[in-house]
Specification:
Strand content of chain A: 5-15%
Order of helices and strands of chain A: HHHHEEHH
Radius of gyration of chain A: 21 Å
Helix content of chain A: 55-70%
Largest sheet of chain A: 2 strands, antiparallel
Strand order of the largest sheet of chain A: 1-2
Shape of chain A: globular
Largest interface: A-B, 54 and 54 residues
Oligomer: homodimer
Chain lengths: 162, 162
Amino acid sequence: MTDDHADIALDPETRLAHDDHDALRLWLRMLTCTMLVERHIRARLKGRFGMSLPRFDLMAQLERAKDGLRMSELSRRLMVSGGNVTSLVDQLVRDGLVERRDVPGDRRAFAVCLTPRGREAFLAMAREHEAWIVELTGGLARSDRDRLHQLLGRFKRSLPAP
Amino acid sequence: MTDDHADIALDPETRLAHDDHDALRLWLRMLTCTMLVERHIRARLKGRFGMSLPRFDLMAQLERAKDGLRMSELSRRLMVSGGNVTSLVDQLVRDGLVERRDVPGDRRAFAVCLTPRGREAFLAMAREHEAWIVELTGGLARSDRDRLHQLLGRFKRSLPAP
DNA sequence: ATTGAATAATTCGTATCTGAAGTAAACTCC
DNA sequence: GGAGTTTACTTCAGATACGAATTATTCAAT
């Protein structure tokens, strides 16, 4: 309305199509922002720590879970398929960063936990990761950032249940 | 500020850490929104047309380019690697939806174009695709959508050059 | 004209991801 | 307590993705 496109008055019919394109433009812009940030983070994680973003994300989930998380819970939180989680965890286990522990009372499930070494490695990465995010979002005024956060919250809640 | 978190006053030092977490939260929320929408679109494209999102996106870029696009331009616009574009185009060629044309005056390059059948297929998909996006963003008030679009525009421009 | 640098694509190895199918354990309900 | 269902996880095939190395062509600069 103010700084990206003139708000030309249109007849109702054209207006409808216009709204459609607006929705599409909103979506494409959100996708672009996400991909740009992701690309930066991915490159920096790789360059600085030789770590991939998916593995970092998985470790981030575990760091806040004292007793670890089940595979299914990881899958839900990371929003990726179960098969994917299996292979990510396999690799992190191979690297000695996480471990599978038996869950008492349910022999089907595992609790995936950070190893001490994994936790230490994660904390070092997380400190820098957070600084990168602060840097990447730092071009926005504080008020804009707050507003964006708020609007994305509304948007998220308005989406159909996953 | 209004509907997602109380704005507790904190001393300057704690405030700094608080801002950091805010930046992280903003980023994670944006990522979540993007992934939720993407998941919906992906599932619907697949279910309705047996089409993948990356291929759809590639065709979408071609639809607006009368004379086609070069591989490198596709790579730039889709924000994916060149090797990836090669394999996507290969498959679309195999399916008869796009074709590689020689570029007069540069024997290194191709112009990737939709075939008539590809164009027809794309237009049918695009109509529904747009309706899905309108539906997914429809839970937001018009004013919120506009504002979100605007803020994302500012954010995008504030990011370091890709 | 010729050499050297830059550009356009492709190829290849590996990682990530999905979704469907498979296995094992836990639950349900009569 | 046993059949059928659900849940937890793995496996597998195929698609998507990156990035480094390769090939072919063009451009630049003498």
